[in-house]
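Hello,

Our lab assistant flagged a job as stuck in the queue for most of the afternoon. It eventually completed. Since we weren't sure the result was trustworthy after the delay, we are filing this so someone can double-check. Below is the sequence as submitted and the structure that was eventually returned. Let us know if re-running is recommended.
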Amino acid sequence: MVCPNCTCGTRCRNCASTPSACVARLSDRQEGALRTYYTNKQKARTRRAAHGVVGHQPRSVAPIPADREFPRTCSCCGRRWVHRGVKDRAGTLCPQCEGHHALPEEGIERRLARAEEHAAIYRKERDAAYGAVQEHRRLRVAAYESRAKWRAAIEEVVLDHDEGPDGLCWCGHALPCRTWLKPDEANRGIHCEVEKWSSWSDVRLEGFLYSESRAHSSVIDEDEPEDDELGPVETGA
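-- returned structure --
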């Protein structure tokens, strides 16, 4: 009789009377090899876990110092200046006054030299401010001139689409044509200005759009958000 629980395929001596009592047994050599395998595996798992904890520890990173601006008032010239640094470690003197600050019992020559240096600093800052103002004026004039050119271009395009002899627009479409409706969709303020220009005489419109003072003419009101929300105004009898 061959025991079905045995892997050796031979007749088991314990199966003669009680086949269920047959159990596969390991030799001492096999048992030792298994114990060594699982012991080494446990040691390797413990070693990997220990290395993993060390490797994932957050490293302390030193903070990168960032420069900041600290407003100060110079005790020598009285000017406001800005100290730039990591901390507010600047003294009470601005960089321009560090070499001529007041000293105890100083002579009149040093005082006069300090006053002259202060005057030179003030003149330099005055010239820089004047140059900034002039540049601002130049940009403003250029912006006004550009606005006047665009305003005249809009007038030339839109006002040409008025009513013809057949009751239609000169472009052949019903009034108001697409050219008249587009400014209303883009900017209600510009559309209102164009409508106002359409009621002016040619002489007045020519002076408004092409005279020497055209760049400083009235400012066009920008489109208001509520204009878009209200939609077209309905008129009834």
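-- support follow-up --
The delay was a queue issue, not a problem with the job. The result is valid. The beta strands are 68-73, 80-85. The chain is about 50% helix and 5% strand.
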